[in-house]
Each structure stands twice: as C-alpha cells, then as structure tokens.
Amino acid sequence: MKLAIVYTSKTGNTEDLVQFIRDLFLEKRIMAELFRIEDVPVVKLFTFDAVIIGTYTWGDGEIPVEMLALYHAFETEEVDHIVTGIIGSGDSFYPQFCGAVDAFRDMLYVQSRLAATLKIEVAMQVADQERCSRFVDIIWNKIENGA
Ligand SMILES: Cc1cc2nc3c(=O)[nH]c(=O)nc-3n(C[C@H](O)[C@H](O)[C@H](O)COP(=O)(O)O)c2cc1C
Q1: Ligand 1, atom 21: nearest CA belongs to which residue?
Q2: Which of 10, 35, 47, 88 is 20–30 Å from 20 (CA)?
Q3: What is the pLDDT of residue 147?
C-alpha cells in the first residue's frame, strides 16, 4: 500500500498539520511519503493507492495558484481507485473559511474515493490532535476495508 501526502503552505500552518498527520501514520507503521507540491510531478501521485492533499486558502476562498494543476489533474484523470483526503488551514475571519478545502472536497467526492476532510483554524491547537487522529483512522479504514 502506497500513501502520499502532497501539500502547499505559505506560512507553515498547513505544513505543521501535514507533518503531524504523517507522524500519526508512522505510529501505525504506515509510511506516508510527504511532498511539497513543487517537488512532485502530478502523474507520480496517480501511482499511489491513497493521496492526502493539504492546502491553505487564499484570496476570496480560493485554491492557491500552485495547487491548480493538481486540482485539474484529479478533475480530469481516471482516479476513482484512489482513496483521498483533503486537509487544510484557514482563517474564519474570511467569509469562505477553508474555501480551497471545500473546492477540493467537492471535486474529490465525485472523482475519487474521498474518505475524509479536515479543516483547522490557522495554527494547530492541542484540541486538533484528536481530530487529526480520527482523520487518520478514517483514511486507514477506507484503505483497508473500503469502509
Ligand atoms: C491574502 C489572504 C487571503 C486569505 N483568504 C482566506 C480565505 O478566503 N479563507 C480562509 O479560510 N483563509 C484565508 N486566508 C488565511 C490563510 O489560509 C491562513 O492564514 C492559513 O493558516 C495559511 O496557511 P499556511 O500557514 O499553511 O500558509 C487568507 C490569508 C491571506 C494572507
């Protein structure tokens, strides 16, 4: 089973989140390969059984520009065998809190085997750790059992 986490992060909040998720998988002895979006060709991600996408939100609830090619690739390729999850950091000061997570969620729900979504308010708090743990369990159950 091959699991990738691909992400973007401007100020480090989403990076902290994806690293925490990666470590939770490691505790389960599941090796997740972590890539910044700039460092991985999108086609390589299609070779994984499961892909978790991490993104902040920019502009007016928008997907960051560096994530658009990834979005369009998942929107147009045959990815219905891939288990996916979408996570991100946003700021509820903005009208569309984590709008990029919502946009990916809606597309991945149609295109892939979307298992779970997770949004955090700006920087990770202790209370988010339990939510991360549940996110990892749900992803893992979907990979193992299709549940
Ligand atoms: C110009 C600008 C626009 C933003 N727009 C949104 C938005 O529409 N919705 C949202 O939830 N957060 C918005 N944010 C907040 C960021 O997504 C948030 O600070 C996030 O934690 C950044 O993640 P990062 O540290 O991984 O880069 C915006 C931030 C900036 C500076």
Answers
A1: 122
A2: 47
A3: 63
Q: What is the pLDDT of residues 49-78, one digit of tens each?
A: 999 999 999 999 999 999 999 999 999 999
Which of 7, 9, 58 has most ligand 1 atoms within 8 Å of its beta carbon, as the pocket-test mutant? 58
Give the CATH architecture of domain 3-145.
3-Layer(aba) Sandwich (3.40)
Q: Specify the pTM.
A: 0.98
Confidence of residue 10 (pLDDT cuts 50, 70, 90): very high
- Ligand 1 site residues (CB inside 6 A) read 9-15, 56-61, 89-91, 94, 96-99, 122
Sheet containing 113-121, strands listed edge to edge, beginning at the edge strand earlier in sequence: 32-36, 3-7, 50-54, 83-90, 113-121
Share of the chain above pLDDT 90, in %: 97
Q: Which residue of 11, 94, 101 sits with most ligand 1 atoms within 8 Å of its CB, as the best mutation to test the pocket?
A: 94
> Burial level of 110, CB count in 10 A (0-12/13-18/19+)?
exposed
Mean pLDDT along residues 31-54: 97
Closest to 7 in 3D by CA, of 48, 47, 45: 45
